[in-house]
Specification:
Layout (H helix, E strand, L loop, with lengths): L12 H25 L1 E5 L14 E5 L2 H4 L7 E4 L33 E7 L4 E5 L2 E4 L2 E2 L16 E6 L4 E5 L9 H4 L2 E2 L3 E10 L5 E2 L1
Length: 207
């Protein structure tokens, strides 16, 4: 044109198809990259976190945060449990009656669990009526489902959480197989923090 503007060059069908393939591949690659390193969705598989999270509810997990800061008490986290946790209550050492499991099995499971951190490295811990007693102070937890006499409701014998380990408990205290039975979890087995629930729509919100 006389004003110097460019006229788009007509594209062949093959060229348009190739461009579409490249765009789709780039979008898929970006989505996979985000899931692998930044944010990943997870679906809740069981009732162990009720009433906070229901079965089949979906959450987003921040995979970056714990590269920059330490996990904190109260964080809801996705992690790889010790091997044996997915099929039962296997402690890594002989657990005494009245004692939370002090040490997990050395191998790591391929499955993912979601629980709440209730104690960290160096903390002393026992359990009273389903509540963690950390460094002699019973946690105030109005968000949990009461324990109601399950085998892990009262574990009065104190253990000390090993360095770089975290003690996990489900919010449904009477129906959660957690660190009480299979031990504290090493930090490097924590995948990330669940920070947002996005499904179903009526439950959308920050955790």
């Amino acid at each position: 044109m006389r004003d110097g503007s460019l006229i788009p060059r007509p594209k062949s069908n093959a060229g348009a198809l190739l461009e579409l393939i490249v765009i789709v591949a780039a979008a898929v690659g970006l989505a996979l990259l985000i899931q692998a390193f930044i944010v990943k969705p997870y679906q809740i598989p069981s009732g162990s976190m009720e009433p906070t999270l229901d079965i089949n509810q979906r959450v987003l997990v921040n995979r970056v945060k714990y590269r920059l800061t330490d996990p904190g008490i109260g964080d809801i986290v996705v992690f790889h449990p010790p091997k044996g946790a997915e099929s039962g209550r296997e402690c890594g050492v002989q657990r005494q009656e009245g004692e939370p499991c002090p040490e997990a099995t050395p191998d790591v499971s391929d499955t993912n669990f979601i629980k709440r951190i209730v104690a960290g490295p160096g903390d002393t811990l026992s359990v009273r009526n389903g509540h963690p007693v950390v460094n002699g102070v019973e946690a105030e937890e109005d968000f949990i489902a009461p324990c109601r006499g399950g085998s892990g409701c009262d574990l009065p014998d104190q253990i000390t959480i090993p360095p770089d380990h975290y003690f996990m408990m489900g919010d449904n205290r009477g129906r959660s197989d957690d660190s009480r039975f299979w031990g504290p979890v090493p930090r490097d087995q924590i995948i990330g923090q669940a920070f947002l629930t996005y499904w179903p729509p009526q439950r959308i919100g920050l955790l």
